[in-house]
Structure formats: structure tokens, C-alpha cells
Amino acid sequence: MRNWNGGAIRLTDREWTIGIIDGPNMSQLGKRDPSKYGSISWAELDGMNRSWGERLGVKIISLVSNQDGEIIDWIHEHADEVDGWMVNPAGLQTYAEGMRQAFEMSGKPYAETHFANTVRHFAQSSPHIRLESGLTSQAQSLVMGLRHQSYLSSLVGLTLYLDEQHLTSS
Predict the structure, then answer these.
(1) φ, ψ at 163 (rounded to 5°)
(2) 3-class DSSP state of 41
(3) Of 170, 169, 86, nearest in space to 135 by CA
(4) What is the DSSP track for 87-144?
(5) Which single residue of 4, 49, 70, 163 has CA 20 to 30 Å from 59?
(6) What is the DSSP letter of 146?
(7) In angstroms, rounded to a whole number, what is the distance separating the alpha carbons of residues 90 and 103?
(8) Do residues 89 and 96 lie in contact, with contact meaning Cβ atoms separated by under 8 Å?
(9) From the centroid of its chain, how far is CA 99?
């Protein structure tokens, strides 16, 4: 069992590799609306994710991209290397069918993760239309609205999920 700040959290000592994908405009963190996104930059977020991963015993690989084709290619390229995915599809979430299919083909679980509460955003911007993410229905989990802490929540949850799956399949 692996420790997190002195207390047991992990179910196994296996080191997982988690691919973290941030979609369109996430590279502009720190310049975006601070009431929704805070003041953290993408480089700071990536550093936090890597630090949290190291403390959990998880290797993090990451991509930030404004191009859905680049994201899909990256998923295919790293599918054999990762054990699970975290994805903030950002501006691609309502049209994420290609990404959803790439995750499905990888055969690995993914956690959909958002800085903001996207349900609130869609309700305010298009109250007469019910919009939702094209990824949520197949995601292992959905965490949103906690800014960068959404990433920590997803990372811990996905890691423990992978641990449990490993133990029950052994």
C-alpha cells in the first residue's frame, strides 16, 4: 500500500501511467476569466499534475492542444503506454465523437475533467437547449467545477479505480 502524506491511500504499489489531455484554449490558462479559471497557468497546472502523480506513484504524460486531430493522434500514439486517461476536452466537448472513439479503441478508462461547471455554463449560454459533453456517457467519471482541484480529484479517483481493477483481475 502506498502512502499519501503519511496516510494510506493506494491499494497497490503498481505505478500506473496516466495520459492527461487538455483541449482548446487550455493553453491560455492564466489569461482567461479568473472568476472561472483562477490565475493558474497551464505550465503550473501541468507541474501540479506531475507532482501529485509522483506522490501517488503515478507517471503522468500530458498534451495541451487546440487541434482535435492532434489529440486523436496522440491518443492512438500513446494507447499502449497508458493505463488510463484524464481529459479536459474544453471547447471540443460537445463535438467530441472522434475523441470518444479514440478512447474507446484504446480500451482504457478515462476521467472527464473540467475547471468550470459546464452544466451551469451551458444553462446560462443556451437555456433553451440542453447541451452536454459527447464524452460523458462513456467516461468512467466526471469531475467539474473545482478549477485545478478537479484534476487532483480525477487523478486520485482514477488511480484508485485502476488499483481496484488490478486487484480484482489478479
Answers:
(1) -60, -50
(2) coil
(3) 86
(4) EE-GGGGGG-HHHHHHHHHHT--EEEEESS-HHHHHHHH-TTS----SSGGG-SEEEE
(5) 70
(6) S
(7) 16
(8) yes
(9) 13
Active site residues: 37, 114
Give pLDDT tens digits for 95-135: 788 888 999 999 999 999 987 766 555 445 555 555 566 66
Burial 17-26 (b: 16+ CB within 10 A, else e): bbbbbbbbeb
pLDDT in tens, 59-84: 999 999 999 999 999 999 999 999 99
**Domains recognised in the chain with CATH numbers:** 15-169 (3.40.50.9100)
Helix 68-78 to helix 97-106 angle (10° resolution) is: 0
The answer to whether 30 and 39 have CB atoms below 8 angstroms apart is yes
